[in-house]
Write a structure and sequence with these properties.
With 119 residues, the chain is mostly beta strands. The strands form two sheets. Strands 2, 4, 5, 6, 9, 10 and 11 form a seven-stranded mixed beta sheet that branches. Strands 1-3-8-7 form a four-stranded antiparallel beta sheet, with no helix packed on it. A hairpin with a 6-residue loop joins strand 5 and strand 6. The radius of gyration is 13 Å and the shape is globular.
């Protein structure tokens, strides 16, 4: 089992940058795939980026490709989401989620961190 806690959200102007962190507990963090989701008011939750347990594979939503980078440091039990060239449409609550590689659904979720991009 793993617990995840997000940090790093805040208010930034259009074109600015933020780095979100997802800190995880548990000795087996390195066996979990990690993803960042986001949910804006009145919208469905969407997958932003994901990274495999080894860090060897990552995927991005089309809306963030070229602007966001997901990475992980298994020695520090932490996954990062570097967000550059932020846009107002990136405003949302960002959630970190974890799953074992052998399953399809993310079943461990954090509380979320607010990202607000002002125009």
């Amino acid at each position: 089992q793993v617990q995840v806690v997000e940090s790093g959200g805040g208010l930034v102007q259009t074109g600015g940058s933020l780095r979100l962190s997802c800190a995880a507990s548990g000795r087996t963090f390195g066996t979990y795939d990690i993803a960042w989701f986001r949910q804006a008011p009145g919208k469905e939750r969407e997958l932003v980026a994901s990274i495999s347990w080894s860090g060897g594979s990552s995927h991005y939503a089309d809306s963030v490709k070229g602007r966001f980078t997901i990475s992980r440091d298994n020695d520090k039990n932490t996954v990062y989401l570097q967000m550059n060239n932020l846009k107002p449409e990136d405003t949302a609550v960002y959630y970190c989620a974890a799953k074992l590689s052998i399953v399809t659904a993310y079943h461990y979720w954090g509380q979320g961190t607010q990202v607000t991009v002002s125009s």
